């Protein structure tokens, strides 16, 4: 077994920052009151983060790229039959990738509906773009509230599956998401990693896009 770097730093930082932010979004929404102000701010932060990850999915390191892990149904069936080794696909496995895509685009959908939602509790903290939703604002808010529960269920399934791999299949996926390294059999795959500088530039651009939403009058 050889130690192989599989996850780059931007993807790992993205993941754990996403987890912390999503938990904060649930807690702040439940607390309500003036915490809603922080819910809105964290929503913008999440927008920058998720846009970063989507762009990174096209121009980032090999294992972060959608083309590396989003596969055809045929490929997924081969994985389920045990015909695809971790050496062949060292990042997300073809089945787990479905959940990864659902979580990334689920968070994007949640953030997008949040941006247009009015505050129908205190009527103080309408989201940045709610005035543009017109008569649909209230419905968008309802979708935002319902989808929050769907997202929570997806995140719980994701967590339970990761635990299942750890406890039942004795396959630790969590440590690699922290350290970036996996232990693979020889011959190990040759992976290409994109630079941190490139990640920073993308993050600055997506942060500017998210911030510019606050300037829309
Ligand atoms: C709010 C909760 C969570 C969300 C929204 C979430 C979302 C995601 C996403 C989007 C990815 C793909 C990462 C990428 O390619 O950029 C991922 C992967 C992963 N997550 Fe989470 N996650 C959550 C909680 C957790 C928790 C609590 C753990 C474990 C303690 C965990 C462990 C992992 C692992 C190990 C992977 C990599 C799976 C693989 O090897 O294919 N996640 N998660």
**Shape estimate:** elongated
Q: Any guess at the CATH architecture?
A: Up-down Bundle
Number of helices: 8
Order of helices and strands: EHHHHHHHEH
Provide the CATH topology. Fumarate Reductase Cytochrome B subunit
Give a structural overview:
The protein is mostly helical and 217 residues long. It has a single domain, classed as Fumarate Reductase Cytochrome B subunit (Up-down Bundle). The chain is 62% helix and 4% strand. It contains 8 helices and 2 strands; from the N terminus they run E-H-H-H-H-H-H-H-E-H. It has a two-stranded antiparallel sheet. Helix 2 crosses helix 8. The longest helix is centred in the last third of the chain and has 31 residues. The protein is elongated and about 60 Å long. The model has no long low-confidence stretch (mean pLDDT 97). The site of protoporphyrin IX containing FE has 22 residues, from helix 1, helix 5, helix 6 and helix 7. Protoporphyrin IX containing FE (HEM) binds next to helix 1, helix 5, helix 6 and helix 7.
